[in-house]
Amino acid sequence: MSPGAEAVVLDIEGTTSSTGFVTDVLHPYARRRFGALLAERSGEPEVARALAQVRAELEEPHAGPARIEEALNAWLDADRKVTPLKTLQGVLWAEGFARGDLVSHFYGDVVPALRRWRAAGLRLYVYSSGSVAAQRAWFRHSPEGDLRDLVTGWYDTENAGPKLAAASFRAIAADTGIPPARLLFLSDRPGELDAARAAGWRAVGVRRPGEPYYEQGPGDHPQARTFEDIDPVGSGA
User: Fold this and answer.
1) Which string of b and e fits 7-44 if b means at least 16 CB within 10 Å?
2) Whether this model's pTM surpasses 0.85
3) How much is the pLDDT for 3?
4) How far is residue 152's CA from residue 232's CA, in Å, rounded to a whole number?
């Protein structure tokens, strides 16, 4: 048997946490606040950078706040993984978590497994289409308290690249300094698993009832119903 993983890289939606919580709680929370964010905080560097990216994506360099809000809502309705949308959502969610308006969701099997894997010497990383700011807020404001100490590093579509591209996984491997064959990626989305494998990673599909990709399944990847079924130090699942 080949050596086990040195690190586990985690998707969030559908893998560690419920997609329904994101779509039913977090998306409406951001939608209600986009207008105020654009009106009151457009001068903040992170917000200003995202607004420039929205205009570039639209190919409308002079798009005003109303047009930008319209585009954000359209991307939200279409579940587009557009980096500036994720950035602005992350700004609003981080604020909501900090104010106590929001508490994140983790499936019951996840946090005990993460603690067990860290105790075994594995490094843990997050790679999500949600911004790094949103990821940090998610792990900080969990029902079990602040979990950020469990995570070594954070990757999103801005600092790593799109999740369906093998090049993004190669970039993460280079940044961590861990050989691709010693990295294990957990996701519910088969295209992401394919991209990880194409970059030389191990990949296991997490298949939870009720999640969007449950019926489709993880293709020809190993699969697990919960994190309790996954052995990163051994064969992966």
Assistant:
1) bbbbbbbbbbbbbebbeebbbebbbebbeebbeeeeee
2) yes
3) 59
4) 16
